[in-house]
């Protein structure tokens, strides 16, 4: 039988949701029938709105899609203005204040504390400046990811930016692909570093060459979510750039017709690939979904991939820092710790991009931002800007490698607090732990649950939210995984330690790195060390320990209305609230 979600979608879905959304916004939060909340909240996702968690009723997270991470001139300033005016909630975050922008691991943007009543004005402002929330969430094509400097990379093999933009133009708002069995994540990359991270996407176009033609090989069925990660698998198909939309549309239609609509857990391309195998997928694609002969795969560049590989102990491959473009100008990548930037700082970012570059800003899959098109003679002045004291182009290893998802601050799925905790972890590690010799990149990813929004399975150290008991009291805890990475030979982290109390995790990392330094062979990378060491020994090298680090979020933050509020009990929540912020009494 179809799931509840499928039944809701059969009644109203896709572009038609907008009319209903606008009606609810005009009439106010209370106009949504209480017994229809789940149905409408599921539908609203298609237009980029996620209802926030218990205790935050009437507030939404808004996701803005930026294909391939590209913000055109002026758009970063618009995002800052919207965050400043509309994304202020009833309580402040102690690290980030009360208005901020989240840059995500899928090169898009998230804002929080959005009121339903403000959505029409926000949409008008976004769309007047070429931005949209359409299909940023929901069971459809999500934000297309790729190399964040596509079209500007001096070492680019093939320019993937036109392909990514064409796919976005073709499939966003396309009714034939608007109601898929589940989310549909697509990566397009043309660089030799592999920074599109195609291995963890439902559909990946990766740089390849065949018979002197530069184009893409096709892989399907990647993903990290839950406890079922998969690496994308080759379809043995080569696609020249001009055929990418036809092949992508064919595979999307195949998933639409054959994906599981009776079990949302199994409704992902990775499970259809498990069930059918790539040979059957290729055969059905050829027979039923494309009208030209598919070419066999060309010679790919996977043996050159370096992005997030965990194997590169010399040099960086995350686009942070100063880099020359293919036109002689430069781009400057800024490290944004855990991907969160205040509204005022985002406005400053926009100013700097406009003053020193073309006004364009790009977002990376490591939650960082890039200012592009900077002439060489303006680099020194750009690097002297005060903003770069906070968002450094040459950050410390532990700051540069930190990624965190939204966590219990807003997410109903998360089990633990993440953003502020990872900020505290990174600062403590920077001040107290020596980075092993020769290690320049070291990735620590903190995800609040198994949904893997922080991509923990592809980090040097993977942290995943759990609960445990300590001194007889329930506390927040983390599973620890080691040695994940993409690159030429991708692998997922090995989960070697479970339910470590959160305040003992920095000590565990400190001891692990000391043990790594002692037992490594020569200058081998951490990932290579993990690969050659058995799981039992790895577990012994992780020694959880209390240190000078103190964690203020050890209590069950999932059961608070807001983890950082002075009075955080559910009974103290001001939600739900009317458009003016006044609470709605429970008897209304």
UniProtKB/TrEMBL annotation:
Keyword Cytoplasm: no
Superkingdom of origin organism: Archaea
Gene3D superfamilies membership: 3.90.480.20, Sulfite Reductase Hemoprotein, domain 1 (3.30.413.10)
Residue intervals of the Nitrite/Sulfite reductase ferredoxin-like domain: 54-90, 95-128, 323-385
Xref: SUPFAM superfamilies: Nitrite and sulphite reductase 4Fe-4S domain-like, Nitrite/Sulfite reductase N-terminal domain-like
Occurrences of domain Nitrite/sulphite reductase 4Fe-4S (ranges): 137-288, 399-545
GO terms of molecular function: 4 iron, 4 sulfur cluster binding; heme binding; metal ion binding; oxidoreductase activity
Residue segments, region Disordered: 565-588
Keyword annotations of the record: 4Fe-4S, Heme, Iron, Iron-sulfur, Metal-binding, Oxidoreductase
Pfam family, one: NIR_SIR
Family from the record: Belongs to the nitrite and sulfite reductase 4Fe-4S domain family.
Protein's name according to its UniProt entry: Ferredoxin--nitrite reductase
Organism: Halobaculum saliterrae
């Amino acid at each position: 039988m179809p799931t509840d979600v499928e039944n809701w979608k059969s009644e109203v879905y896709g572009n038609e949701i907008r009319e209903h959304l606008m009606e609810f916004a005009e009439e106010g939060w209370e106009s949504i029938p209480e017994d229809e909340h789940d149905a409408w909240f599921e539908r609203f996702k298609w237009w980029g709105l996620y209802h926030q968690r218990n205790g935050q009723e009437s507030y939404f997270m808004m996701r803005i899609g930026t294909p391939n991470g590209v913000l055109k001139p002026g758009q970063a300033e618009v995002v800052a203005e919207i965050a400043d005016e509309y994304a202020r909630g009833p309580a402040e975050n102690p690290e980030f204040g009360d208005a901020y922008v989240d840059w995500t691991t899928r090169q898009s943007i998230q804002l929080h504390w959005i009121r339903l009543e403000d959505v029409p004005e926000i949409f008008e402002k976004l769309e007047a400046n070429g931005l949209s929330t359409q299909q940023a969430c929901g069971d459809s094509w999500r934000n297309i990811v790729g190399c964040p400097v596509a079209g500007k990379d001096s070492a680019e093999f093939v320019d993937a930016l036109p392909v990514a933009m064409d796919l976005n133009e073709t499939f966003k708002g396309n009714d034939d692909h608007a109601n898929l069995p589940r989310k549909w994540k697509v990566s397009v990359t043309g660089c030799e570093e592999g920074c599109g991270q195609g291995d963890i996407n439902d559909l990946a176009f990766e740089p390849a060459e065949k018979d002197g033609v530069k184009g893409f090989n096709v892989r399907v069925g990647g993903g990290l979510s839950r406890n079922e990660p998969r690496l994308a698998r080759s379809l043995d198909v080569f696609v020249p750039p001009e055929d990418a939309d036809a092949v992508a549309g064919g595979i999307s239609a195949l998933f639409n017709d054959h994906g599981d609509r009776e079990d949302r857990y199994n409704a992902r391309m990775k499970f259809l690939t498990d069930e059918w195998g790539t040979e059957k997928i290729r055969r059905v694609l050829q027979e039923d979904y494309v009208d030209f002969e598919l070419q066999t795969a060309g010679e790919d560049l996977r043996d050159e991939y370096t992005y997030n590989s965990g194997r590169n102990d010399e040099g960086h491959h995350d686009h942070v820092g100063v880099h020359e473009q293919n036109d002689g100008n430069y781009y400057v990548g800024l490290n944004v710790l855990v991907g969160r930037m205040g509204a005022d700082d985002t406005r400053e970012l926009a100013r700097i991009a406009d003053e020193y570059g073309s006004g364009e800003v790009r977002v990376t899959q490591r939650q960082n931002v890039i200012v592009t098109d900077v002439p060489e003679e303006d680099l020194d002045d750009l690097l002297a800007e005060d903003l770069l004291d906070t968002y450094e182009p040459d950050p410390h290893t532990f700051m540069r490698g930190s990624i965190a998802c939204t966590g219990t601050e807003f997410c109903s799925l998360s089990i633990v607090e993440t953003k502020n905790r990872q900020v505290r972890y990174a600062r403590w590690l920077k001040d107290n732990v020596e980075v092993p010799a020769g290690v320049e990149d070291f990735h620590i990813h903190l995800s609040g649950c198994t949904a893997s929004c922080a991509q923990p399975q592809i980090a040097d150290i993977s942290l995943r939210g759990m609960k445990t008991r300590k001194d007889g009291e329930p506390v927040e805890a983390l599973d620890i995984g080691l040695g994940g990475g993409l690159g030429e030979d991708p692998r997922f982290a090995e989960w070697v330690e479970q339910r470590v109390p959160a305040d003992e995790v920095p000590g565990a990392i400190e001891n692990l790195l000391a043990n790594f330094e002692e037992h490594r062979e020569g200058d081998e990378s951490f990932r290579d060390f993990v690969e050659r060491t058995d799981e039992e020994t790895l577990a012994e090298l992780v020694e959880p320990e209390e240190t000078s680090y103190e964690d203020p979020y050890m209590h069950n933050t999932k059961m608070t209305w807001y983890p950082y509020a002075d009075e955080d009990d559910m009974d103290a929540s001001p939600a739900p609230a009317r458009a003016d912020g006044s609470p709605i009494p429970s008897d209304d």
